[in-house]
Amino acid sequence: MSAIVRLGTQGWSQRDWVGTFFPPGSKQEHYLPFYAQVFDTVELDTTFYHPPRASVVRSWARHTPSTFRFTAKVPQRITHEARLSNIAEHLVAFVASLEPLGERRGPLLVQLPAEFTRDKGSHGVLARFLAAAPQDARLAVEFRHASWHREEVFDLLRKHRVAFAWTEWRSLPRVTQVTADFLYLRWIGNRADLDRFNEVQIDRADSFASWQADLERVLPQVREVYGYFNNHWAGHSPSSANEMKRRLGLEPIDWKSLWPQRELF
């Protein structure tokens, strides 16, 4: 396998994981340090709602090794409220807010709303946004409407070395275009399907197999892969991430082997 493959979850602050991923009795301040012993990447969802405080970002860096990578969702103020228009200075500020991560900062995800469809005007908006983006920001774009699944869009992304995010979400068609030197994948699921996240509840064997085939086909074309599972996809995203690792020939870490051993008396 030529590419560096990093697989993890969308966020880590999940109380349902205590006793099923985190050691029993774990407190929230221990979640990230433990998570970083098992996985080498995580997608930050909190950044979608507001840019993080510098003290918080420094804490993320302090609790993870230098080999760990954080990817982050671009704030909704940019993607959903402004719809990418006249917002370049806010993207610059957001990138700057992540500076304390240093080498731990991975790609940034531009998740567009499903209502943001493609036409001549919106295509131009995207083109101007990408042209104005900071050169040191590696971007991936998640289109949630099939009108963007066009060669003109793929060519635009390639021009700016921006990744087309591969996504499994509702009935959105799967598109496996390679438009950058890295891949960005998201397994999301349906929020209405599950309300607890302490175990796998949906059999995704067929989906795993098809994603594995798609990934193995394009791995020689890229340098890195970033992939993130949501709890809603199968019920327990750490288990999903480890399953995909196994299927790709990577060595998953058994998190229970890291739990403190009870003393026997």
Automatic annotation (TrEMBL):
It holds the Pfam family DUF72. It comes from the Bacteria. Gene3D superfamilies: Protein of unknown function UPF0759. This is DUF72 domain-containing protein.
